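Researcher: I'd like a candidate sequence for this fold, 367 residues long. If you have to choose between options at a position, lean toward the conservative one.
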C-alpha cells in the first residue's frame, strides 16, 4: 500500500469547523430498539477528539438495507437518541441509504453531503470496503482523515496480514457463504490453516460427498470448495453436528445427515477439536458464528469456540457483527485482543491489504 493516509492531526485546527464523520451505526435492532450499541460506543473516541478541540460534529451512517428510499423501519431515530445520551450536541443525519445516491456513489448526493462542511473523517470501518458516496466522495474535495477506530482496525488487520505470528489460523462460519468464499481463497495464501463451521461448512461437506440433508448450502459454490480442498492447506471441517431431524426435533448427528435433517451447530467433538487448533495457534482470526447461536439449543459450538478464543495465548481478532454479538452474549468480548466492527471489511482488508475508503483518503487534498 503506497501513500500516506491522513490521521486526525492532519486536519489542522478544527476549532469552529463543521466536521462530517462517516460512522458505522448499523446496529442490530429488534422492535425499534437497539439490541447492542457497540458500534455507537466505538465511534466515541473520534467524536470526543473532535469536540474537545472545538469542532461541530455531524455524523452520518447507513442502517440496514432500505433500498434507496425512506423507510420508517430503518429510521435513525433510536440511534440518534442513544447518540444524544452518549455524546450530547452531536448531530446525526438521516439514514444515508434513504437516497439511492449513497450506494450509487452519485456526485450530486456527495455535493449535498459536503455542503457547509469544512472537513471529513471516515471512522466507518464496517463500510470502508464499499465505494459508496459517503465513503469515497468527500475526500475528493475536503481535508480528510481516518478516525481513531478506523486507524486501530487498519493497524491490527494489516499487522495480521503482513506479519502474523505463526501458526496463523482463520476460523470461519456464519451464513453469508458466497460473500465469504471469495476471500477464503485469498486467506489461504495468508493463513496456515482454516477452521470451517457455521452454515459455511455444508457446502464444503457436500463438496466432499457427504449427505447434508436440508442444511443451508450453496450448490453453485461446490466447485470452488472442491478446488480449495485440493489446494494443499489444512482445512478443518466438522466431524459431528447438532441440528434437527426431519420431524424438526433436536438431534445430534455424525458427519452424515439423514434426509430432511438440518445442521444448525457443530457437534461437541468438533467444538473440542476446533478449540485445540485455536489453543495451539499463535494468531487466530475468527469470523462467523459456528451455528445458529441465537437459539440456545444451537449455541454450544459458538460458545466453546468463544471460550477457546478467550483461553488461548494466541493474538486473537474477531470480526463480524454477529460474531461480536455472540462474544458479547457470552460475556467474553473483553477476553480477546481485538473485536473488529467490520465483518466484510475485515475479510477484504485481510484479502487485499487495502479498501476503497482508505484509497479515497490517500487521495485527499491534505494527504
Ligand atoms: P458475521 O455477522 O459475524 O459476519 P454472518 O452474518 O455471516 O456472520 O452469519 C451470522 C448468522 O449465521 C447467524 O445469524 C447464525 O444464526 C447463522 N448461522 C450460523 N450457522 C448456521 C447454520 N448452520 N444454519 C443456519 N444459519 C446459521
Ligand atoms: Mg452478520
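Model: Candidate sequence:
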Amino acid at each position: 500500500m503506497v501513500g500516506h493516509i491522513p490521521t486526525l492531526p492532519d486536519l489542522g485546527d478544527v476549532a469552529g469547523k463543521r466536521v462530517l464523520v462517516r460512522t458505522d451505526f448499523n446496529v442490530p435492532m429488534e422492535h425499534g430498539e437497539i439490541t447492542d450499541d457497540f458500534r455507537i460506543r466505538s465511534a466515541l473516541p473520534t467524536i470526543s477528539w473532535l469536540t474537545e478541540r472545538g469542532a461541530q460534529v455531524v455524523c452520518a451512517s447507513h442502517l440496514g438495507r432500505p433500498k434507496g428510499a425512506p423507510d420508517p423501519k430503518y429510521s435513525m431515530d433510536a440511534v440518534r437518541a442513544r447518540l444524544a445520551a452518549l455524546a450530547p450536541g452531536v448531530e446525526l443525519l438521516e439514514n444515508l441509504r434513504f437516497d439511492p445516491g449513497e450506494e450509487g456513489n452519485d456526485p450530486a448526493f456527495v455535493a449535498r453531503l459536503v455542503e457547509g462542511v469544512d472537513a471529513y473523517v471516515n471512522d466507518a470501518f464496517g463500510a470502508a470496503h464499499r465505494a459508496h458516496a459517503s465513503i469515497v466522495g468527500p475526500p475528493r474535495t475536503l481535508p480528510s482523515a481516518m478516525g481513531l477506530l478506523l486507524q486501530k482496525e487498519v493497524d491490527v488487520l494489516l499487522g495480521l496480514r503482513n506479519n502474523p505470528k505463526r501458526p496463523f489460523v482463520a476460523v470461519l462460519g456464519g451464513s453469508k457463504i458466497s460473500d465469504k468464499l471469495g476471500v477464503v481463497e485469498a486467506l489461504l495464501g495468508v493463513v496456515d490453516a482454516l477452521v470451517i463451521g457455521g452454515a459455511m461448512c455444508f457446502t464444503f461437506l457436500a463438496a466432499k460427498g457427504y449427505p447434508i440433508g436440508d442444511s443451508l448450502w450453496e450448490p453453485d459454490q461446490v466447485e470452488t470448495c472442491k478446488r480449495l480442498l485440493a489446494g494443499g492447506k489444512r482445512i478443518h471441517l466438522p466431524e459431528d453436528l447438532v441440528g434437527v431431524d426431519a420431524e424438526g426435533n433436536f438431534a445430534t448427528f455424525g458427519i452424515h445427515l439423514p434426509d430432511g435433517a438440518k445442521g444448525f451447530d457443530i457437534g461437541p467433538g468438533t467444538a473440542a477439536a476446533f478449540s485445540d487448533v485455536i489453543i495451539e495457534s499463535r494468531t487466530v482470526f475468527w469470523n462467523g458464528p459456528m451455528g445458529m447461536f441465537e437459539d440456545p439449543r444451537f449455541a454450544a459450538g459458538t460458545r466453546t469456540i468463544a471460550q477457546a478464543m478467550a483461553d488461548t495465548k494466541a493474538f486473537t481478532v474477531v470480526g463480524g457483527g454477529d460474531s461480536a454479538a455472540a462474544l458479547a452474549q457470552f460475556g467474553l468480548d473483553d477476553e480477546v485482543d481485538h473485536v473488529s466492527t467490520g465483518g466484510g471489511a475485515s475479510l477484504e482488508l485481510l484479502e487485499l491489504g487495502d479498501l476503497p475508503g482508505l484509497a479515497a483518503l490517500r487521495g485527499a487534498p491534505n494527504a
